[in-house]
Specification:
With 585 residues, this protein is an alpha+beta fold. 37% of the residues lie in helices and 21% in strands. Strands 15-16-18-17-19-22 form a six-stranded antiparallel sheet. It has a five-stranded antiparallel sheet with strand order 5-6-7-8-9. The protein has a four-stranded antiparallel sheet with strand order 1-2-3-4. Residues 463-558 form the NFACT RNA-binding domain.
Length: 585
């Protein structure tokens, strides 16, 4: 999610504790729209990373440094000149705006004490870092904005800094009930949207959270709310704002499986879903550590998707070709359904053909298979026997086509299933090591170019996911078809339990029994949740999962790795994901 005013309030509160009284030791500008301030104070050194990037604006205390260019940009040199050893007097946030302001004290060229303001605005594509005099006169900014770029506000040296207000919004920290009701009721939109459009610093997810806390449907409009509902919503938001004012924050990340999907400075009860639900929450001691974890995780996911883009394209193109081929084969197969009709025509002509005298265009007779009267079209230039032979020839041709197409259609369907399983493996890959085996499989089956003779085969270091159930049972999840094959036929014992999402591509999940026969239901539910999550059905609310003891699983002869057959299985409905953490390998 983007930075909202509540996240900024949490950061401002943290920075007030850690930065106020500290002194700037170093200023670096590793990117054109990014600063790193090294601040020493309170017996520790802090790196404050600030980015005004349009795609990823952020500010937090970073644990890792970044290399700087050999020649510092002009804005960095300007800051070094003025505030290279400045003391941070105050960290403040105007209202609930997405703005943090550092009030700095330093000595000028004459040795006199003076103050400056470094203002960080994190507003999407309008994000900026603005350096001002104490009275608000802009000295410079990391992004200069002229009237040609913005008709609302110029950000240029010599101009006076102000916060632009392009529409009427209420400050959630100070808004009265009467003003709140007016803003919400007059908004011609859904309640949830009205909250983040008419209140400063409120993000869509927090608007959803407010509606959830007040037990009010966010899809209703403000004008639909009764006076009692409006009052309840106002007081719900006011209670949350009291926590913001008092600095009672609870930084947390919401995960879906291993993927972070949301973060917040306050608890997000709208994501609560029990210990085996889709979402899990992880709390953090500070918003800075949360942001560093969140963005490094997102960066890792983005990086692996970029690394796998070539493999995804290979799979996607192969799937597209096979889907077209499969549709054509099914259409041709449907055309062969009339073959038995031609066989019956031939047999009936052989039986009743003696009634024909020649030149007839049809024969009406009784179909002795059904007892019904039937009309058989005839070629008047042919005899009854010749017409019968013609129909038998059609039947024979369609029968041969049916037999050939049945085999080809089966092969195409198997190829589609194989490619879909590879696509599912790409979806759950977490590192470059996980991609190595997938690439090997694509090369083995002719989808990707094989390595040149003499090229060394890469070392396989990827291992299956390993979990421990709440009751202490080992659970393993294959990341690709090779690992699925190995888990099922080499790692699992006969009495271990095997899980797989029903009818859709996904991982093999093995629940190790350790020789025990009395396995608690919770272990089955957790293994089923993992099988649902590591499948193509992970976005569904629930997924049907088959499970059966390993000894009843059979390998399909000649099939791609990981493809099995089984009968007499059990089934359960599982919510994708689970509260289990991966075990240390």
């Amino acid at each position: 999610m983007a930075f909202d005013g509540i996240t900024m309030a949490n950061l401002a509160w943290e920075f007030a504790q850690s930065l106020e009284g500290g002194r700037i030791q170093k200023i670096a500008q590793p990117e054109k729209d990014e600063l790193i301030l090294t601040i020493k104070g309170n017996r520790r050194t802090i790196r404050l990373q600030i980015s005004a990037s349009a795609s990823l604006p952020l500010i937090y205390e970073a644990s890792q440094n970044k290399p700087s260019p050999l020649t510092a940009p002009s804005f960095c040199m300007l800051l070094r000149k003025h505030i290279g050893s400045a003391k941070i007097l105050e960290v403040r946030q105007p209202g609930l705006e997405r703005i943090i302001e550092l009030v700095l004290e330093h000595l000028d060229e004459m040795g006199d004490v003076c103050r400056k303001r470094l203002i960080v605005e994190l507003m999407g594509k309008h994000s900026n870092i603005i350096f001002c005099q104490e009275d608000g006169t802009i000295i410079d900014s990391i992004k200069r904005v002229s009237t040609q770029v913005s008709s609302v506000r110029e950000v240029l040296p010599g101009r006076t800094y102000f916060i632009p207000h392009t529409m009427e919004k209420g400050d959630p920290l100070t808004v009265t009930q009467e003003e709140f009701e007016r803003l919400v009721r007059e908004a011609p939109m859904k309640l949830q949207k009205a909250l983040y459009n008419r209140l400063t610093g409120i993000s869509p997810i927090m608007a959803e959270e407010f509606c959830h806390l007040a037990s009010i449907d966010g899809d209703r409009t403000g004008s639909d709310l009764s006076p009692a509902e409006m009052t309840h919503l106002y007081h719900t938001i006011s209670l949350v704002m009291e926590d913001v004012k008092e600095g009672r924050f609870s930084p947390n990340i919401i995960y879906r499986g291993q993927e972070p999907v949301e973060f917040s400075a306050l608890p997000l009860t709208c994501y609560e879903s029990g210990p085996d639900g889709i979402f899990t929450s992880r709390s953090f001691d500070s918003m800075s550590s949360l942001l560093e974890t969140y963005y490094s995780s997102r960066e890792s996911i983005t990086r692996i998707r970029q690394k796998s883009s070539d493999l995804r394209r290979i799979v996607s193109n192969a799937l597209e070709r096979n889907y077209k081929k499969y549709d054509l084969q099914l259409k041709q197969l449907k055309d062969t359904e009339k073959r038995d009709k031609y066989r019956v025509y031939g047999e009936l002509l052989n039986t009743y053909g003696y009634e024909l005298t020649g030149g007839e265009k049809q024969l009406r007779c009784t179909n002795y298979y059904t007892g019904e009267e039937i009309t058989i079209p005839l070629d008047e230039t042919l005899t009854a026997q010749e017409n019968a032979k013609k129909y038998f020839d059609r039947y024979g041709k369609l029968k041969r086509t049916f037999e050939a197409l049945s085999e080809l259609t089966g092969q195409t369907k198997n190829e589609i299933d194989h490619l879909e399983s590879i696509s599912a493996a790409l979806d759950i890959a977490e590192s470059e090591n996980d991609l190595v085996q997938i690439k090997e499989e694509l090369m083995e089956y002719g989808y990707a170019k094989k390595r040149k003779s003499g090229d060394k085969k890469p070392k396989i270091t990827s291992k299956p996911f390993h979990y421990i159930s709440s009751d202490g049972f080992q659970i393993y999840v294959g990341k690709n078809n090779y690992q699925n094959e190995e888990l099922t036929f080499k790692v699992a014992n006969g009495n271990d339990w095997w899980f797989h999402a029903k009818g859709i591509p996904g991982s093999h999940v093995i629940l190790k029994t350790g020789g025990q026969t009395d396995i608690p239901d919770r272990a089955f539910e957790e293994a089923g949740a993992l099988a649902a999550y590591y499948s193509k059905g992970r976005e569904n609310e629930k997924v049907e999962v088959d499970y059966i003891q390993r000894k009843f699983i059979k390998k399909v002869a000649g099939a791609a790795p990981g493809f099995v057959i089984y009968h007499s299985n059990y089934s359960l409905m599982a919510i994708p994901g689970c509260g289990l953490k991966q075990a240390d390998s």
